[in-house]
Write a structure and sequence with these properties.
globular, four-stranded antiparallel β-sheet, Dna Ligase, domain 1, 390 residues, D-amino Acid Aminotransferase, Chain A, domain 1, Rossmann fold, alpha+beta, 3 domains, 17 strands, seven-stranded antiparallel β-sheet
Length: 390
């Protein structure tokens, strides 16, 4: 099944027994923050599945409640809607570690490095990986080595905590957990940052209800519950000029990263994906909901619709494009009036047939379009989007 990313707040609430954190929105008040946190030394960060938040200025540390409100207001003006607030955990930078667990056919692959934090990518040569068959067989953990002079008590922390952590991952159908950085101290793991993915077949068991869902999000959540495929949608900026219909969570992250890198991240209207080989009827219904939200954009600025994804292994491009085209056809007049241009980049089974279907439809409907196959990088499509909107 497909893997679905959950928020850091959701992951920490599931995995940490006594977690004290607040899932915040632009409507969160100063009173709510001060009531939740008697200690005013706080961390505030974006919580929407975006990578490299620290390097992009989307994490602030050692902030007062008023600072937190100011950060949320600033980020919400750029289109972001979901944030995480939690107390600062005092520590020395050299104490930061990297730890990840990924579900494999034969157990759990554990990856560990004593070089954690924002610069971990420059220290991948320090990464050690072992296979842990189950929570009761941790013998492989003892093969991990630490640089000379370092206390091996950190390995004792792993041996103490994994027997309860792994069953929790399995209970909630979590298939990937990355803690970076994480502190290993006093018989416990203290993750400062978490990225977590759940098997879509069990996503309802791992997901904490979102009290701030809008009409479009609720409609797609209800649709998602009726299909074995994965259909996800978050409305980030109702008046954004860039709307996406993406296949696969990886494509969602790559696109969001590239939009931010090219300085147009604030125009991203929604975030989401369809995956797990959905039926054309599922994609049709999904696309209709997205287009309905798009056509409510205030004003007549040009709009970009990005229909993209990686190179699929199982999802049929022709079949999913059939559903997308049906929805576009029903709204073609409104889309022309909205000055919407469609940017397509897709690869996978029946790629050529699916792309030809889209070309034929755009020609027949008179909609503007730009269509590419797997040989074109997704980053090029983002560049064209920027040029169209500028």
């Amino acid at each position: 099944m497909a893997r679905v990313k959950i928020s850091e707040f959701q992951a920490k609430t599931i995995l940490l027994p006594h977690y004290l954190g607040l899932s915040a929105t632009p409507k969160t008040t100063l009173k709510e923050i001060t009531r939740t946190f008697p200690d005013s030394n706080l961390v505030v960060k974006l919580d929407q599945g975006i990578k490299k938040r620290g390097k992009r200025g989307l994490v602030q540390v050692n902030r007062t409640p008023r600072d937190v409100i100011s950060a949320i207001q600033t980020w919400s003006m750029a289109g972001w809607q979901h944030f995480l607030v939690e107390p600062v955990v005092e520590h020395a930078p050299e104490a930061e570690r990297y730890l990840a667990l990924e579900r494999m056919r034969d157990g759990w692959q554990l990856s560990y490095s004593d070089h954690g934090g924002v610069e971990v990518e420059s220290s991948w040569d320090s990464l050690q990986t072992v296979l842990v068959p189950n929570s009761s067989d941790l013998s492989a953990i003892r093969t991990l080595s630490l640089p000379k002079g370092k206390d091996r008590s950190e390995l004792s922390v792993l041996l103490e905590t994994l027997p309860s952590l792994i069953p929790t991952l399995e209970k909630y159908h979590l298939v990937f957990l990355e803690m970076n950085p994480v502190l290993l101290r006093a018989h416990q793991l203290i993750p400062l940052d978490i990225a977590c993915e759940v098997d879509s077949a069990g996503s309802s068991l791992a997901t904490i209800p979102d009290r701030n869902q809008g009409a479009s999000e609720k409609s797609i959540a209800a649709l998602d519950a009726t299909t074995p495929a994965s259909l996800k949608f978050k409305l980030l900026n109702p008046n954004g000029s860039i709307w996406v219909l993406l296949s696969g969570g990886g494509a969602s992250l790559v696109l969001a990263d590239e939009l931010a890198d090219q300085g147009i991240g604030k125009e991203l209207a929604n975030y989401g994906e369809y995956s797990g080989a959905p039926k054309d009827d599922d994609v049709y219904a999904y696309t209709k909901i997205v287009l309905s939200a798009l056509l409510q954009v205030v004003g007549r600025k040009p709009l970009a619709i990005v229909i993209a994804g990686g190179v699929a292994n199982f999802t049929d491009v022709k079949k999913t494009f059939s559903g997308i085209i049906r929805a576009l056809d029903e709204k073609q007049q409104e889309l022309r009036l909205a000055k919407a241009k469609i940017f397509v980049r897709r690869g996978g089974p029946n790629e050529a047939a699916g792309l030809q279907m889209m070309k034929d439809f755009l020609k027949q409907s008179g909609l503007l379009g730009s269509i590419y196959g797997h040989e074109t990088p997704l980053t090029q499509v983002v560049t064209e989007v920027k040029e169209y909107l500028s």
